[in-house]
Amino acid sequence: MHGGPGHTWKEVEDAMTPMFPVTRDAKAYKERFGTLLKKFKANDAKAKWASGTAEQVTELKEKLQECLDLQREADTLAATKMQDSKTMKQRLLRDKEK
Questions:
Q1: Which residues contact 10 (CB under 8 A, 6 or more apart)?
Q2: What distance in Å separates the CA atoms of residue 9 and residue 40, rounded to the nearest whole number?
Q3: Which residues of the chain fall below pLDDT 70?
Q4: How far from each other are the two terminal CA atoms of the chain, in whole angstroms?
Q5: Helix locations, the chain, DSSP H
Q6: 6 Cα distance to chain centroid
Q7: Tens digits of per-residue pLDDT, 73-90?
Q8: CA 26 to CA 91: how far, in whole Å?
Q9: Domain residue extents for the chain
Q10: Is the terminal CB of the chain with fewer CB neighbours within 10 Å at N or C?
Q11: pLDDT score for 1
């Protein structure tokens, strides 16, 4: 999957279209995925505070946790790249002033 986030969601749309009689666009899949992750995060936080019972981990929960972990890694990487870019710009400005 190459070509950026929009292209990736278009690939999701293309893959899902033959499976469902109702046509949805890439944006709908992206929004639904976002909603699922948001609900999972909220329920996961509640489950961590619950006491006395072991949480049942389903395959869906495992996959959602994997997606959430990947999203966090991507966010961290993006923040690091942004900081590196700022640092590089500051160095270039300092070198230019010399």
A1: 26
A2: 20
A3: 1-6, 51-55, 98
A4: 45
A5: 5-16, 26-49, 59-97
A6: 13
A7: 888 888 888 888 888 888
A8: 41
A9: 1-55, 56-98
A10: C
A11: 42
Contact between residue 17 and residue 23 where contact means Cβ atoms under 8 Å apart: yes
What would the pLDDT profile of 3-13 be if each residue is shown by its tens digit? 566 678 888 88
CA 27 to chain centre: 14
Measured CA to CA, the distance from residue 14 to residue 29 in angstroms comes to 11
Q: Give the integer Cα–Cα distance in Å for 92 and 57.
A: 50
Cα dihedral 34, 38, 41, 47 sign: negative
pTM: 0.55
